[in-house]
């Protein structure tokens, strides 16, 4: 999909792709920028240890870019399933039961995808500290943009988890997911703040 | 350009496209999401005035998406010119003078582009309040993601303005640009906070 098509699809009156997809792409851009910074050699004062730390960050970040790209598509698909479930017939008791089950199953999917997006962004922000600390100072503003985008993506993904959890009836799933999301979000915020101090 | 190519280009060791491009695309995604929200009809309680306000917001936001898309490309080109200017010969006095002038001119361009990105994001955030207030509540998380992305994009653009201003010698240009950027940034932050309260 081209960038122009993505923007067109986000703008259209079709509810998907929506915020979940945009958040995942923003996170993928953030992770990509961090990968770039790990690649900009700093001729003067990078020790071998610094270089090894940057290489390790790059190895961790590269699959996150791919993962967030997949999640951008998965998010739209998961929400399409929710809308399809709501459109199921609801005349007979059997239909009502089947529809209710389909909605619950689809909502769980639509919760799990943004939770995975949040997890991927939180993971990228762990690497961001190393990148911001040891990366080329000439690329500090790139690292800064990356941190800001990953933070916004994590917040957006967290909001989407909570919205979809709202419709879910299974209390155990609800509690576990909400707790996991809250923990990932706090970790992401803390790592973003630490990383941002190196590039301020 | 496809989304995959954009991510690949951001990840590469080539300094462009970098944070300025990513910020502009993130802003364009945010503005696109706001356009979507203006299009999701709210069957129950939208008055004619509400609908008119949403239509006006959509009319304001649509050109901003296009503008930010252009600025994403312009940002990379402007920074390419800065790097080209630094590579100019610097043996003779005449060469030194020409190179210095080329660097200053290129840096002004590389400052103006993120300033325009910041301005476009600030403008989109003005519309965000209306969209968040009158838009369909079912799309509140989309509006929330949009606000977060526009805020991150504005911050990133502001950081890029400041970085490139650092190398500029004309004090008048420096002062005016820094002041304009600071004003736009404050307005963007205030509008983002107001808009976010409607979708929290």
What features would you highlight for this structure?
homodimer, 6 helices, 200 residues, mainly alpha
Can you offer a commentary on this structure?
Two copies of one chain form a homodimer. The first copy, chain A, has 200 residues and is mainly alpha-helical. Chain A is built from six helices and no strands. The first copy, chain A, has helices spanning 3-11, 19-39, 48-86, 93-134, 140-165, 171-199. Chains A and B meet through α1, α2, α3 and α5 of A and α1, α2, α3 and α5 of B.
Quaternary structure of the protein: homodimer
Parts with pLDDT < 50 across at least 5 consecutive residues of chain A: none
Helix and strand succession of chain A? HHHHHH
Main sheet record of chain A: none
Task: Calculate Rg of chain A over CA atoms.
Answer: 19 Å
Number of strands of chain A: 0
Structural class of chain A: mainly alpha
Give the helix proportion of chain A (percent range).
over 70%
What is the mean predicted local confidence, pLDDT of chain A? 95
Q: Largest interface, with Cβ-Cβ < 8 Å?
A: A-B, 50 and 51 residues
- Principal-axes geometry of chain A comes out as elongated
Strand content of chain A: under 5%
Ends apart, CA distance between termini of chain A: 35 Å
User: If helices are DSSP runs of H or I spanning 4 or more residues, what is the number of helices of chain A?
Assistant: 6
């Amino acid at each position: 999909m081209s960038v122009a098509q993505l923007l067109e699809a986000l703008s259209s009156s079709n509810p998907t792709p929506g915020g979940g997809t945009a958040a995942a792409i923003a996170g993928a851009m953030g992770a990509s920028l961090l990968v770039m910074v790990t690649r900009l050699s700093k001729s003067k004062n990078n020790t071998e240890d610094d270089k090894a730390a940057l290489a390790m960050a790059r190895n961790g970040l590269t699959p996150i870019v791919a993962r967030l790209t997949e999640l951008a598509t998965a998010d739209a698909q998961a929400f399409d399933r929710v809308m399809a479930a709501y459109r199921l017939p609801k005349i007979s008791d059997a239909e009502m039961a089947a529809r209710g089950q389909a909605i619950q199953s689809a909502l769980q999917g639509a919760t799990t995808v943004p939770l995975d997006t949040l997890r991927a962004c939180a993971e990228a922000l762990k690497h961001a500290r190393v990148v911001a600390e040891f990366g080329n100072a000439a690329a500090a503003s790139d690292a800064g943009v990356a941190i800001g985008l990953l933070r916004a993506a994590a917040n957006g993904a967290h909001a989407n988890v909570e919205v979809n959890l709202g419709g879910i009836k299974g209390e155990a799933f609800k509690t576990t997911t909400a707790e996991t999301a809250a923990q990932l979000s706090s970790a992401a915020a803390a790592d973003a703040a630490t990383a941002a101090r190196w590039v301020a």
